Structures are given as C-alpha cells and as structure tokens.
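pinging the channel bc i need a second pair of eyes. not urgent but kinda urgent?? the chain im working w is below, pasted from the shared doc
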Amino acid sequence: MSTVRIGNKLIGDDQPCFIIAEIGINHNGDLELAKRLISLAVAAGCDAVKFQKRTPELCVPAAQRAVMRETPWGYISYMDYREKVEFGQAEYEQIDDYCQKSGIIWFASCWDNPSVDFIQKFNVPCYKIASATMNNETLLRHTRDTGKAILLSTGMSTLEDVDRAVAILGKEDLALLHAVSTYPAEYGELNLRAILTLKQHFNLPVGYSGHETGIASTVAAVAMGACVVERHITLDRAMWGSDQAASLEPNGITRVVRDIRLVEKSMGTGEKKIVERELPIIARLRRVD
C-alpha cells in the first residue's frame, strides 16, 4: 500500500497514526480562542490542526441567507453568522505564524474553489475534502490541481460514491477517511468495519474521522488499521456552536492521543515468541515432570 506525505509525516501502514485535531469553526470567529485550541492540540501531542474555510456567498443557499437565529453576536441572519465565523487574510497569517512557532502542521477543508485558492497562499501541505463536498466534481478537480496531498472524508456516501470521487482525484497522494456525518454520532452508527472495506477496495491509506462523544471507538479504529484519526476539539462542549457537542474537550483529546500511542506500541510484529521479561517467570513457574 502506498504512503502519503504530509509535511514531515508519512501516512500509511506501518507508520505512526497521523492525529488531526479538527478546530473547524469551534473558534467562533475568535482568533485568541483559535490559538488556545492550537495550543491544546500541541499539548495533547496531535500532529496537525485543521480549520474549515468557506466563501459564504457561494456556500450559503439563498433560501437560508435571511433566516434569523440566536448567536453570540445577537439575533442575526444566518448569512451574517457565516461571515462572522470566517477568518480572513489577517487571521490566517497569524494562525500560520502561530502554528509554525508551535511546531504543528495546519491545513483546512475548503468548501469552494475560491477558498482553495485562499488557503493555497499559505502553502499548506495538504487539503481535506469534507464529506459534504465529496460529490462536487469541480471542487475535487480544483483541489487536485493544487498538487497537494488530499484527505477525502467519506461520510454520507456509499462505496459507489467514493469510487466516483477517487476516479476524479486519482490515487496519487490520496488517503480516505471513513466517517459518519451525524453530530454527535451514536455508537451503533459508526460501522468501523467499513475501514477494512475501504482498505481492501481501494488499496489506499485509510483513516477515521469520528464525531462520537467518547474515545473508545476512535482508539479501536486505529487497532483496526486506521492510519489517520481526526477528532473535533473544544475547550468546553457546552460552548455555543454546531460542532461543539461532537467535540473532545482537553482531557478527551489528550486521552485519545495517549491511548493511540499505547495501542501502536502494543501491536508488535505478529511473531509468536517468548519475551525477555518472561524468562525468569518461566524459570520460577514452569516445572517439567
């Protein structure tokens, strides 16, 4: 199976799991909160942080633009809300600088072509295709034209849907992420065995993008062969925002990273043998009649 390089990391079988802390829009348009979330990911031992980038006038359907909603900025239209949670050039320059100084990779899932062009100015090492946009052929081709590695999330899709997306993107520098796009996801929906289905069908690196509230299934995904893990992070799940409830708080993301690394350490080579620390136990407990 091929490997995919993201910055100074390799993704694939026999490589350490690449762990992504999804900040997404959990920063609620607050740059200082975004920096705190980056610092959380660094402290937990994550390999990367990921943001989301949209052009609201392209991504918000006309019928939803004037819909009013309660927000931290008051009772405003959905379009105004989408604009308030979008970072621009000045904010991303600071994010780029902060991540470089913190020693962590950053990139984004871009929901439209201008957003791809915007993020490309920062020379990120890869792009994420969100499950919601994996059927957008124009976006797939535009993202592939950047020449960067791509992580393709596969929520809300059948195997045939993934086949079509992979046919457009090509298999070079491509990894797939099994996902279930419910927020938060219920354990009975997760279908972790689909990780094995994707690996066998596409012969590509396959990871897991989880939206459940706990950590056990995410760690299990790695034991099943997921070479990438992505989880949303937040400082507090009670914070305002659509993705907060499906996110991990500081203790949760720290435990995910810790447990994934312990699982990796535990896997071994598969050879059945006696380990050195068993030898004195053999001498003490084994008896030959």
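so Residues 4-285 form a domain with the TIM Barrel fold (CATH 3.20.20.70). and Residues 178 and 194 are 7 Å apart (CA to CA). — does that match what u expected or am i reading it wrong
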